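Students often ask why inverse folding is considered easier than folding. One informal answer: many sequences map to the same fold, so there is more than one right answer. In these notes we will look at a single instance of the problem. The structure comes first.
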C-alpha cells in the first residue's frame, strides 16, 4: 500500500507543481500579452479541456496521499517525530501545499472559469468582446496571474521542503 501511496503522491504532485509553474511562468503571461486570442485559449483550456478540474484533482490526490504518508511515517503523529528536523520539513511542505490548494479552490479555479465563460460566450456570439468584457477579462487575468504566481511559489517551496526532509536530522 505504501508504494502505491508514494507513486500517487509523487506523480500527482509532479503534474500539479509542473502545471502550475508552467501556467504561472509561461501561459498566463503570454495570454495576457496576446489579448483576446489568448482568452480563447484559456476558454478552451477551462471549458473543453477542464484544466481547473484536472489541477484540483491532482492537488487533492497529492494532498490526501501525502497526509496518509505523513500519518504513516510519523507513527500516527508521534510528537517526537513531528518535532524532528524531518518532521518539521514535511510539515512545512504540507502546509505550503495546503495553502496552494486553498488558493486554487477559492481564487484560481473560479477566476479561470469566469475568463473561460466570457470568452466562450464571445466565441458563440461570433464577435469580439465588448469594452466592458475586455475590462473584466483584463482584471480577471491580472488576478489569475498574481495568484498563480503565489501558488507556484508555495508549491515550489513545498517541493523543496519535502525533497530535503529526509536528510534533516
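Output (designed amino acids):
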Amino acid at each position: 500500500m505504501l508504494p502505491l501511496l508514494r507513486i500517487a503522491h509523487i506523480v500527482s504532485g509532479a503534474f500539479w507543481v509542473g502545471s502550475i509553474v508552467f501556467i504561472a511562468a509561461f501561459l498566463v503571461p503570454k495570454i495576457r500579452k496576446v489579448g483576446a486570442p489568448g482568452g480563447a485559449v484559456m476558454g478552451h483550456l477551462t471549458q473543453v479541456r477542464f484544466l481547473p478540474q484536472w489541477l484540483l484533482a491532482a492537488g487533492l490526490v497529492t494532498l490526501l496521499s501525502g497526509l496518509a504518508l505523513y500519518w504513516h511515517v510519523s507513527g500516527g503523529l508521534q510528537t517526537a517525530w513531528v518535532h524532528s528536523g524531518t518532521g518539521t520539513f514535511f510539515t512545512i511542505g504540507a502546509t505550503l501545499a495546503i495553502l496552494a490548494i486553498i488558493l486554487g479552490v477559492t481564487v484560481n479555479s473560479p477566476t479561470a472559469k469566469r475568463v473561460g465563460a466570457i470568452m466562450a460566450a464571445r466565441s458563440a456570439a461570433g464577435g469580439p468582446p465588448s469594452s466592458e468584457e475586455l475590462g473584466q477579462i483584463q482584471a480577471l487575468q491580472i488576478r489569475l496571474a498574481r495568484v498563480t504566481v503565489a501558488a507556484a511559489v508555495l508549491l515550489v517551496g513545498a517541493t523543496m521542503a519535502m525533497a530535503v526532509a529526509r536528510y534533516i536530522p
